[in-house]
Automatic annotation (TrEMBL):
Range of residues in the leader sequence: 1-19
SUPFAM superfamilies associated with the record: Porins (SSF56935)
Listed InterPro entries: Gram-neg_bact_OMP, Gram_neg_porin_domain, Porin_dom_sf, Porin_Gram-ve, Porin_Neis
Name by which UniProt lists this protein: Porin
Subunit structure comment from the entry: Homotrimer.
Stretches assigned to the Porin domain: 7-322
Keyword entries, A-Z: Cell outer membrane, Ion transport, Membrane, Porin, Signal, Transmembrane, Transmembrane beta strand, Transport
Gene3D superfamilies xref list: Porin
Subcellular location: Cell outer membrane
Location (main, coarse): membrane
Topology class, membrane: Multi-pass membrane protein
Length: 354
């Protein structure tokens, strides 16, 4: 009888411990068709898209996130998220290249993450791109998106901290040590010398979001010589019948004014500075939006029109269109196909989340 009671006690304790930990499988799957001006329709980017295999509206990923209650209001968290899955071919792999971090969280002091994670810029300024950082993003196509500073919305070997929410105010900070930085060399002539020496990188962003109003500002120091400190500000206001947003940012590349990211050669780093305007209106389960971006340094503009229809809480249909106004077409090279001047891109498909 005593052995049975002991066994039951052990099982009960084990069950309580298991209840304090959880691991969740999640993902985003985007499949559809798209094309660029002068090229052919194709599944998930179609002919001529840089990289290929990525959804037009969202990046297809699978991830695992978990949390453990350590007691006293302290939690241990982790997140592993794959690089983009290719749903149109057999090129799918499980490389956790987007999120790979472990962290601690406390109810009174906030949360800290160590590893590879979304950048502070992506978390702070991503809310002002109403269609997400999709292929049709006018912000990114004009080369002035704060989300894709340094060509990526991710940072490796980063320590990132976020405060608790104080009446709508949150502060984020990121740090990457000099020894963890890697350097890159763009095409000859694009950047002034000296260029290439790695620097410790600091990011700081703040958001106040309360009711219909959201205001954010952030900056990120240069990762290597030849770059510059990047900064961005944004504001949005929800009028219920329509939500409006405006941003201004200066990108990180020094010495060039930026370029059209549909027409550009691979390997060039986007620079420039400029502003954006956006509006999105809900219509029951659907929304329709328009976004405009102006790169004042490079004299490039982009207009984006999009629509989404929610088939359920987890599945939606989308149509996206973007046109970039830039006269600089790019000739074909061994690595990339030709890109037309004044290019446009269009895509439609389905996104399912789980």
């Amino acid at each position: 009888m005593k052995k049975s009671l002991i066994a039951l006690a052990v099982l009960a304790a084990s069950g309580a411990a298991m209840a304090q930990s959880s691991v969740t499988l999640y993902g985003v799957l985007d499949i559809g068709f798209g094309k660029v001006k002068g090229e052919k329709w194709g599944m998930n980017n179609g002919e001529g898209y840089s990289g290929g295999g990525d959804g037009f509206n969202s990046t297809s990923v699978i991830g695992f996130r978990g949390t453990e209650d350590l007691g006293g209001g302290l939690k241990a968290n982790f997140n592993l998220q794959t690089s983009g899955l290719d749903l149109s071919s057999s090129g799918t792999g499980l490389n956790f290249g987007r999120e790979a971090w472990v962290g601690l969280e406390g109810a009174g002091w906030g949360a800290i993450q160590l590893g590879r994670s979304s950048s502070v810029a992506a978390k702070v300024m991503g809310a002002y791109d109403f269609n997400g950082t999709s292929y049709s993003s006018a912000y990114d196509r004009a080369g002035i998106s704060a989300v894709t500073w340094y060509g990526s919305s991710r940072r490796s070997s980063q320590v990132q901290y976020v405060t608790p929410n104080f009446g709508g105010f949150t502060l984020r900070a990121g740090y990457t040590a000099k020894g963890d930085q890697t350097t890159s060399t763009p095409s000859v002539g694009l950047l002034p010398a000296p260029y290439g020496e790695a620097k410790a990188q600091y990011s700081l962003g703040a958001t106040f979001a309360n009711g219909p109003l959201s205001v954010s500002a952030m900056g990120e120091s240069k990762a290597q010589e030849g770059m510059r400190t990047a900064y961005a500000v944004g504001v949005s206001y929800d009028l219920k019948v329509v939500k409006l947003a405006a941003t201004y940012n200066r990108r990180e590349t020094e010495g060039i004014d930026g370029y059209n990211t549909i027409a550009a050669n691979s390997g060039r780093l986007a620079g420039g500075k400029g502003w954006t305007l956006a509006a999105v209106a809900p219509f029951g389960p659907a929304n329709i939006g328009v976004q405009y971006a102006r790169n004042t340094g490079a004299d490039i503009s982009a207009v984006e029109v999009f629509a989404n229809y929610a088939l359920s809480k987890r599945t939606r249909f989308y149509v996206d269109f973007v046109k970039t106004y830039d006269q600089n077409g790019v000739a074909a090279t061994a690595a990339t196909p030709a890109r037309p001047s004044e290019p446009y891109a269009v895509g439609l498909g389905v996104v399912h989340t789980f």
